């Protein structure tokens, strides 16, 4: 990296207006977070809440933390941490979510065979009676 | 190798292993971002515990979270967001060499952090009173499943976050003292910036904690 002589750093100073605009947006988004939780979205509500949280986080990181105007390498460091976080989450949740699929004694394949057999029985019965009144057994939710 | 440069506005503050103030400044900032990356993964572990247990025991989470006070949690969210604003304004004041505004914004950030902790204290004592304690200390009634796990996760996550708020208050106070001593200038304010980055991360973590703990539906 070459030496640079400068009397003042050419840093970007964010105007007050921008800071207050971001602040206002964050407060509105917080209200939205609470509002979304009362909107009866069921299972989707956690995803909606996380989406709003991600937008808020993006605003804080880009403007309050200056990342939008900063060296790209700092942004890379931040993004890489998110990549590893995503890896951590996805792999662990795949494990946790598929625990039911593995039979304790026979291993994975036995349980899948059982499920397939159950599914075939049910759809066979449904097409015979002409109406699907029974749904296949769901794992505990 | 070129001769090291000296910044004429605030001379002689470049450590010997840096070529310029600019390089020293950007190295300090990068170091802080790397630390923040470790903090993200640090809390990530706890968020992962939350995700796994919420997936396995959704009813427990639904019932247990109703014992949390949403208005207080939302107020705390607004308090931390405001403290992030004052912290950003403090950094801005440092960039412009405005010592008085730097001091007042740092003081405001510190005060808001105190408010956050007071509200948290109110919430915690209320929980202790009702027996909603973590793990083996849980003595309350009326929630199905594994409520002691929910409250274990609640107290560890908010407690660790609270410790980070306390540490943040410590470094804010330290930077405030140095600012009052006139140690910062338009071209030398890196500690203020880095404390700011840490404080924004504390706010970021709460931005995710609040909906996950208080707004389970």
Helix segment count of chain A?
4
Tell me the strand percentage band of chain A: under 5%
Q: Helix tally of chain B?
A: 6
**What's the β-strand tally of chain A?**
0
Major sheet size, sense and barrel closure of chain B: none
Largest sheet of chain A: none
Question: Structural class of the helix and strand makeup of chain A?
Answer: mainly alpha
Arithmetic mean pLDDT of chain A: 79
> How many extended strands of chain B?
0
Q: From the helix content, strand content and strand pairing of chain B, which structural class follows?
A: mainly alpha
Biggest interface and its residues per chain? A-B, 60 and 63 residues
Along the chain, the helix and strand elements of chain B come as: HHHHHH
Distance between the termini of chain A: 56 Å
Overall geometric form of chain A? elongated
In terms of DSSP E residues, the strand content of chain B is: under 5%
| Helix percentage of chain A | 55-70%
Q: What's the pLDDT, averaged over the residues of chain B?
A: 91
Poorly predicted sequence stretches spanning 5 or more consecutive residues of chain A = 1-9, 130-141
Large-scale geometry of chain B = elongated
- Detail the poorly predicted runs of chain B: 1-9
Notes on the protein architecture:
The complex is a heterodimer of chains A (141) and B (217). Chain A is mainly α and 141 residues long. Chain A has helices at 16-37, 45-64, 72-97, 108-129. In chain A, α1 (16-37) runs antiparallel to α2. With 217 residues, chain B is mainly alpha-helical. Chain B is 74% helix and 0% strand. Chain B has six helices and no strands. In chain B, α4 (99-130) runs antiparallel to α5 (147-180) and α5 runs antiparallel to α6 (190-214). The longest helix of chain B has 36 residues, at 21-56. Mean pLDDT of chain B is 91; it is low at 1-9.
């Amino acid at each position: 990296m070459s030496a640079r002589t400068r009397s003042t750093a050419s840093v970007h100073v964010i105007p007050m207006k921008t800071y207050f605009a971001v602040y206002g947006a964050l407060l509105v988004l917080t209200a939205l977070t609470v509002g979304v939780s009362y909107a009866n979205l069921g299972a989707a509500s956690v995803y909606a809440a996380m989406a709003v949280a991600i937008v808020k986080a993006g605003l804080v990181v880009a403007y309050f933390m200056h990342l939008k105007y900063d060296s790209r390498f700092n942004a890379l460091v931040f993004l890489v941490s998110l990549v590893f976080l995503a890896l951590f989450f996805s792999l662990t949740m795949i494990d946790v979510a598929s625990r039911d699929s593995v039979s304790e004694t026979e291993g994975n394949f036995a349980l899948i065979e059982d499920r397939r057999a159950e599914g075939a029985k049910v759809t066979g019965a449904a097409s015979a009676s002409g109406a699907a009144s029974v749904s296949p057994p769901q794992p505990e939710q | 190798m070129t001769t090291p440069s000296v910044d004429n506005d605030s001379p002689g503050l470049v450590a010997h292993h840096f070529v310029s103030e600019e390089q020293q400044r950007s190295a300090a900032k990068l170091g802080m971002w790397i630390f923040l990356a470790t903090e993200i993964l640090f809390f990530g572990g706890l968020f992962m515990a939350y995700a796994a247990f919420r997936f396995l025991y959704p009813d427990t989470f639904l019932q247990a979270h109703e014992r949390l006070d949403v208005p207080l949690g939302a107020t705390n969210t607004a308090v931390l967001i405001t403290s992030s604003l004052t912290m950003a304004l403090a950094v801005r004041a440092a960039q412009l060499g405005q010592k008085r505004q730097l001091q007042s914004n740092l003081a405001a950030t510190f005060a808001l952090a105190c408010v956050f902790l007071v509200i948290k204290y109110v919430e915690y004592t209320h929980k202790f009173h009702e027996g909603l304690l973590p793990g083996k200390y849980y003595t309350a009634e009326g929630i199905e499943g594994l409520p002691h796990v929910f409250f274990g996760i609640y107290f560890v996550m908010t407690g660790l976050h609270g410790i980070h708020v306390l540490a943040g208050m410590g470094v804010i106070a330290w930077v405030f003292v140095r600012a009052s001593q006139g140690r910062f200038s338009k071209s030398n304010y890196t500690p203020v910036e880095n404390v700011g980055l840490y404080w924004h991360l504390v706010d970021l973590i709460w931005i995710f904690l609040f909906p996950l703990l208080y707004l389970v539906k």
